[in-house]
Amino acid sequence: MIEGKLSLKLVMNLVNVKASEFICDVITLFEGVGRVVSFDKLAESSALIRIGAVDLVLIGGSGGVVRVEFIMDNIKPLSGFNDLLNTFKKLLSLLPSGGETLKNLELISSYETYIPLTNTPDYKSANISKVLSGFGISVNEVNFESLDGAGLLTASGTYVVGGLGVVKIIHTTLSRNYAVRSSLTMSKNVSISDINDQTIKKLLYETQILFQVVNEELFNSSYIKFIYK
């Protein structure tokens, strides 16, 4: 098994709210429960609050738009999600009951690892689309960029998860010399009722399992090959 870092993000996009007032209200709401790590006191347009295992990020924009992110990093197999669920429910109490301000809710999980190689990556020999398609991923786009001696390869598409339906997939590899940083991200637009322990664990599990089987195919057991086309 390829060891890596598992993380989770829940993103809310709010409209028709006054960013400065809303962000200050959120800070007040979690006073005594969370710790304010950073706060733009001048414009009151952004803040980072740490609440248990959750980082709550607030970013205000023009036109009454606020982006809210709930982030959990370095998740363990037996991690609990009460901090995230309770923080999410508590923040919802600040929104109007009709839900008109909430325009988008997205659940995102990712798995990332660093892999040493014995050969320099060769981007002329294999077919990333074929590998991903072999595991049920419908590939929409594959892009490669060379960045200061590093190679960045990104493939995006969709994947069907039992119980969740169609989710978006992004597989990324950043290689330099004899090493590669690889990640797989799985995301799903959800409703408020979908934010529960079962949905979160399902998305995280599917992300980790899909990452393992895809990367075992791309990198052989001795990490000798890393070839795309």
Describe the 3D structure.
The protein is of the alpha+beta class and 229 residues long. It folds into two domains: 5-107, Alpha-D-phosphohexomutase, C-terminal domain (TATA-Binding Protein); 109-218, Alpha-D-Glucose-1,6-Bisphosphate, Chain A, domain 4 (2-Layer Sandwich), CATH 3.30.530. It has helices spanning 19-29, 82-92, 128-133, 197-218, and strands at residues 5-14, 35-39, 46-51, 54-60, 66-72, 102-116, 138-147, 150-161, 165-176, 179-189. Strands 2-3-4-5-1-6-10-9-8-7 form a ten-stranded antiparallel beta sheet. The longest helix has 22 residues, at 197-218. It starts with a strand and ends in an 11-residue tail after the last helix. Residues 221-229 have low confidence and may be disordered.
Mean pLDDT: 88
In oligomeric terms, what are we looking at?
Answer: single chain
List SSEs in N-to-C order.
EHEEEEHEHEEEEH
Largest sheet: 10 strands, antiparallel
CATH fold name of the largest domain: Alpha-D-Glucose-1,6-Bisphosphate, Chain A, domain 4
**What class do helices, strands and sheet pairing give?**
alpha+beta
Whole-number tally of structural domains: 2
Annotated CATH architecture of the largest domain: 2-Layer Sandwich
* Low-confidence segments: 221-229
Radius of gyration, Cα only, in angstroms? 20 Å
Strand content: 35-45%
Biggest sheet: strand arrangement: 2-3-4-5-1-6-10-9-8-7
Instruction: State the helicity in percent bands.
Output: 10-25%
- Secondary structure: number of strands: 10
Class of the largest domain in CATH? Alpha Beta
Shape by Cα distribution: globular
User: How many DSSP helices?
Assistant: 4
Cα(first) to Cα(last) distance is 25 Å
